Protein 1
Amino acid sequence: MSKTWYPLINGELCTECGICVDKCTHGVYDKEKAPRPVVTYIEGCVQGCTGCGSLCPNGAITYFGDASQTGCGDGCCCEGGCNCTETV
Ligand code: SF4
Ligand code: SF4
């Protein structure tokens, strides 16, 4: 079964403060890369959790699987901008 919820980091907004990496206790971020947020274990992310994103001072974290967002996020296969109307 594919994972349906995990954080997506916007590298243009992120200032690498490390708050999100410190916050998560589920091993989603690679602590060895701190303070840079590197998502390495998406399977550990808790469905619906926004713990790291709510603490980010720059709004750099969104979630794959968040129905309030449209489009499929990073890795989108649409050319010239995302055309998707549902999360995948
Ligand atoms: S959403 Fe929650 S479980 Fe997932 S990476 Fe952030 S703090 Fe960890
Ligand atoms: S809390 Fe936000 S700004 Fe800080 S490292 Fe995480 S994504 Fe980047």
Note: Helices lie at 19-23, 51-55.
Protein 2
Amino acid sequence: MDIYYGVLIFIFGLVLGSFYTVVGERLPDGKSLINPPSHCPNCNHRLGILELIPVLSFIILGGKCKKCKSKIPILSTLIETTTAILFLFAYLKFGISINLFVALTFISMLVIVIVSDIRYMVICDEVLIIGNIIIFILLIISIGLKASLFALFYGMTSFVIMLSIKTLGDMIFRKESMGGGDIKLMFTFGLVLGIPSSVASIFLASFIGLPISLIMMKNNKSHELPFGPYLSVAAIILLLSGIDIINVLVNM
Ligand SMILES: [Zn+2]
């Protein structure tokens, strides 16, 4: 790894992560992404340039608003750091290549999905559509049109598999077993990871999600929990792990 690129990509991840938090928190609510500018949720104090630096500002300000001293939610800092670390891992795995940009787009989509699904139980179509288009164009550049059309087919197949699981789940549980967003998400998984990894992500997500859901249900008594974040975490693990045999990206 070239340390210069590594640092650059990490900073890039911090800045974009900060933007993704804004997208994930505002888009499902129909709010503008630029207006109002970032402000303290407590006193509406508009953040200056020095208060907007990802992570650093949080540390310098001691996690408190400069004006009213109320606590700044840690979520944003957490998302920024996570995005940066994931970007760095993607660079370590793919190097400087078109595939790296596919991976970064994929991670970006999923970070927004995680924020919006946790906050509103919504996965925005805009995010999925824009992400899919960017990924498809990058795939054509990276692996050629023919292989990209195969990837498209993998996406559609994964979508149909998830739709079948949902239909079956609805029949068994006699209620909505899964959100539409989770099914649409599976199209992107198929496109980037291929069919076996997409199916694996469902199992991995259930494996990660089950204990967490049980604990949350016990404490909150809430029975509606988003599945999207678990799917996203699972997909990122599969993308960045060493399981190359089943990745579209690495196979072609
Ligand atoms: Zn404040």
Note: The pocket of zinc ion is lined by residues 40, 42-43, 45, 65, 67-68, 70 (CB under 6 Å).
